[in-house]
Design brief:
Chain A: Keywords: ATP-binding, Nucleotide-binding, Transport. The complex is a heterodimer of chains A (537) and B (314). With 537 residues, chain A is an alpha/beta fold. Chain A has 21 helices and 20 strands. Classes of the chains: A alpha/beta (537), B mainly alpha (314). Chains A and B meet through helix 2, strand 6 and helix 6 of A and helix 9 and helix 10 of B.
Chain lengths: 537, 314
């Protein structure tokens, strides 16, 4: 093969004051037309590598080593030279479509600008903008030109950003976690389109992801990075069948794909009354609009895990909020251990809230940054008047130990903890009230795969020890399959599928569930292989 | 649409009424008697003829109980009668109308200096890369905001009028006499603009879309002018009310220091002599200006920010 499109040799990036180099000793080639996936957890250096290739490293960064693009050295370019190359040499698709378009400029202006900054006349750029928007699969692009980003969905914004990245037909496209903020089905459509466009144009794609399943589906070659170093590289098949590095094996093990294997043994059907019984729940936000929750009925057995699955806007969060008595229902009933929650009095609700606790999606936002762990975890103790005040410290220490956090973190603040540690703190806080039902609202989505596995493990152990009942809200079907006894699938406010996990996954009762299962990343890895793999691990 | 316009009008009237009532209450509670002050200026204090006092009280509607006085004043206000000045005996409306143009000219000149200066400093602080200069540009606004207006005015007078003889020290004739008071009034406003805009530019620059724009090949200057400045100027609008307050309060001090006629000086003199009608006239004028500016700001927001212009997703 001729010279690769991108050749990186002994490349490193350091930030003054940082203990560890962001990237070190990196060797990487990307051939023309190749799709390369860079996989790793946060802090692995994958985004830094992408930024260096796009000429977007912050000023403080010190880089060394060689970066060649079509035989031309990139590392010596100054800002001016870079400016002319960004967008033309390298197209960049950013991570969060919701915040990556200028909110005060129209879509049309932003697509056109991508070409006019490189000297294309306006008369030429305008029709091409339309063509690009059509290429990325947006319907009626004419009407989109005058729209603003806030009027588009996340998936549409990401398509616009892809159109912008492709505007000058760059030989290399870099996509930095382009779909991590999107729903599974949108994620699949976007990745399909991106892959197709890149193949059509013969460009190369550097896809950055933390989701090994996505990489296995899409890549010609996968590179695994950790702590700024390249650990392993190979085709998806090589990595899947013979991962050389222990970290790759760990990643595979921690990936939701492997979780598919941890089938749960369904507990014997108990004759007990269910802990929570939801009947014909309805919620309408305005009289004319569709119902956010429409006739939802289900029950939770004590000590089991039920997953509530659906895309954003499906009504799953509203359902959860009604169960938590944070939202009113229009009609229906929620019975918890014999108590009717809807319409319960203040005092009854106070007692109820102690027995039902919530763990939020984002551990970075759910903890008061000004309080230390002692104050955070002891808050429910104070709120519900549990135990003596002088015993609180001992109780908090016991709770921290229970969630696997060392006691010397007691006086730390959330900013000094990792994402996984924060989620453990949030779980400890929820446990402080000694609840029977724990509502977990996408508790893993902000965490890296290996950390996700640890938190899931913790939840499993806590359930066994304390007999907790979980309502697990998620859009990650692989995880759901691994941990749930019962699955509820919601779409447009209705429960479209419900039943024991294996039944729902094996014989989905609705087209919607079937589609969701098809959109799941990692589907290109045959089921049989997943199983042998899991046995070997 | 019609209901929202109705509510806005009702809100405006409520603000005016509240300003009127509050100022009435404060003036009523003040120690000292306006008629007493008036007579004392006439000569022999304490020897006023009770009949004359009663006559004056009746003429200026200062007789009767608190509620009678308040009710009367409110009733006259509803008929657009601001009353008569205790000191000059002339209608308050006329006094305000006479003083307003000079103050408007001063405030307008100050804004003409403050807005470009504030924006300029904020932009420079963002663009300049040289350390000491950058630090100076970042810290100057906070320093200037905290300087007392009268002190700055005196300092400028000392330097440019008395030492250098470039500009006249007082009076209000011609453009030259406007320069120093306008600069005095403009400095704290410019500093405020620079502070808010500077912070706003810094936070907008951290937004992911700025990085995305850079990756398109948009250069530094067009990034700043076309994208960052537009986004950063939205929070600046919320400052207009405060700016107006600053201008009005500053006008009182500036006009006194530079011996200019205007609303500020009128207010100062009226407060000193407890000329209730005039003080209330000034308060109502200020409140009306506030209401007007806020209305204008509300109309400007959707022009700058499309997210306000067209609600949510279609």
């Amino acid at each position: 093969m001729s010279t690769p499109l991108v050749r990186i040799r002994q490349f490193g990036v350091e930030y003054p004051g940082a203990a560890q180099a962001a990237v070190q000793g990196l060797d990487l080639d990307i051939a023309a037309g190749e799709i390369v996936c860079l996989v790793g957890e946060s802090g692995s250096g994958k985004s830094t590598t992408a930024a260096a290739l796009a000429g977007l490293l912050p000023e403080a960064a010190q880089q060394h080593g060689q970066l060649w693009f079509k035989g031309q050295a990139l590392d010596s370019l100054d800002e001016r030279a870079w400016r002319q190359r960004r967008g033309r040499l390298v197209g960049f698709v950013p991570q969060d479509p919701g915040t990556s378009l200028d909110p005060v400029k129209t879509i049309g202006a932003q697509v056109v600008e991508a070409m006019t900054v490189h000297g294309m006349p306006l008369a030429q750029a305008r029709p091409r903008a339309l063509e690009l928007l059509r290429d990325v699969g947006l319907k009626a692009p004419e009407t989109l030109l005058a729209r603003y980003p806030h009027q588009l969905s996340g998936g549409m914004c990401q398509r616009v950003l892809i159109a912008i990245a492709l505007a000058n037909d760059p030989p290399l496209l870099i996509a930095d976690e382009p779909t991590s903020a999107l729903d599974v089905s949108v994620q699949r459509q976007i990745l399909d389109r991106l892959q197709q466009l890149v193949r059509e144009r013969g460009s190369s794609l550097l896809l950055i992801t933390h989701d090994l399943a996505v990489a296995l589906d899409r890549a010609d070659r996968i590179l695994v990075m950790r702590h700024g170093r390249l650990l392993e590289s190979g085709t998806p098949a090589q990595l899947w069948h013979a991962p050389a590095h222990p970290y790759t094996r760990q990643l595979l093990q921690a990936s939701p794909l492997a979780r598919l294997q941890q089938r749960r043994v369904a507990p014997a059907l108990s004759r007990e009354l269910p802990l929570l019984q939801v009947t014909s729940l309805n919620r309408r936000f305005d009289k004319r609009g569709a119902a956010a929750v429409d006739g939802v009925s289900f029950s939770l057995q004590r000590g089991t895990t039920t997953s509530l699955v659906g895309e954003s806007g499906s009504g799953k969060s509203t359902t959860a909020r009604i169960i938590l008595a944070l939202e009113r229902a229009s009609s229906g009933s929620v019975r918890f251990d014999g108590l009717e929650v809807l319409g319960a009095g203040r005092r009854q609700l106070h007692g109820y809230r102690r027995r039902v606790q919530l763990v939020y999606q984002n551990p970075y936002a759910a903890l008061d940054p000004r309080q230390d762990l002692l104050a955070i975890v002891s808050e429910p103790l104070r709120a519900f008047g549990i135990g003596q005040r002088r015993d609180h410290r001992a109780r908090v220490l016991a709770l921290l130990e229970r969630v696997g956090l060392p006691g010397d973190l007691l006086h730390r603040r959330p900013a000094q903890l990792s994402g996984g540690q924060r989620q453990r703190v949030a779980i400890a806080r929820a446990l402080a009230a000694e609840p029977e039902l724990l509502v977990l609202d996408e508790p893993l989505s902000a965490l890296d795969a290996p950390v996700q596995a640890q938190v899931l493990d913790l939840l499993q152990r806590l359930q066994e020890k304390l007999g907790l009942t979980y309502l697990f809200i998620s859009h990650d079907l692989a995880t759901v399959r691994g941990i749930s006894d019962q699955v509820l699938v919601m779409s447009q406010g209705r429960l479209v599928d419900q039943g024991p996990t294996e039944e729902v996954f094996g014989r989905p009762g609705s087209d919607y569930t079937r589609r969701l299962l098809e959109d799941m990343p990692g589907r290109l890895v045959p089921e049989a292989e997943v199983q042998t793999r899991a046995v070997n691990l | 649409m019609h209901t929202s316009a109705f509510w806005r009008l009702a809100q405006a009237l409520l603000v005016l009424w509240a300003a009127f009532s509050l100022s009435f209450a404060i003036l009523y509670a003040l120690p000292g008697d306006p008629v007493g002050i008036l007579l004392a200026q006439g000569g022999e204090p304490g020897t006023a003829d009770p009949a004359q006092v009663a006559e004056l009280r009746a003429r200026y509607h200062l007789d009767g109980s608190l509620w009678q006085q308040y009710g009367g004043a409110l009733w006259r206000l509803l008929h657009l009668d601001l009353g008569v000045s205790l000191q000059t005996g002339k209608p308050v409306a006329a006094a305000l109308a006479a003083a307003l143009p000079a103050t408007l000219a001063l405030a307008f000149a100050a804004l003409l200096i403050a807005v470009p200066l504030g924006i300029g400093v904020a932009l420079a602080a963002h663009q300049v890369r040289r350390r000491p200069l950058q630090a100076a540009l970042h810290n100057a606004p906070a320093l200037v905001v905290s300087l007392p207006t009268f002190w700055v005015g005196l300092l400028l007078l000392q330097l440019f009028s008395f030492r250098l003889h470039w500009l006249p020290a007082m009076g209000d004739h011609g453009l030259a006499s406007l320069v120093l008071p306008a600069v005095t009034l403009a400095l704290p406003c410019a500093a405020m603009i620079a502070q808010v805009l500077g912070r706003s530019i810094a936070s907008v620059s951290q937004q992911p879309f700025v990085q995305a724009l850079r990756s398109k090949g948009v250069g530094r200057w067009s990034l700043l002018w076309r994208h960052i400045l537009h986004n950063a100027s939205i929070p600046l609008l919320s400052l207009t009310g405060t700016l107006l307050g600053n201008l009005l309060a500053g006008a009182v001090v500036t006009e006194t220091v530079f011996s200019r006629d205007g609303v500020g000086r009128l207010a100062q003199a009226a407060v000193a002599s407890q000329d209730i009608a005039v003080v209330q006239g000034v308060v109502l004028l200020a409140a009306a200006l506030y209401v007007l500016t806020n209305l204008l700001t509300d109309l400007l927001y959707p022009l700058l920010d499309p997210r306000i212009r067209q609600g949510s997703r279609p």
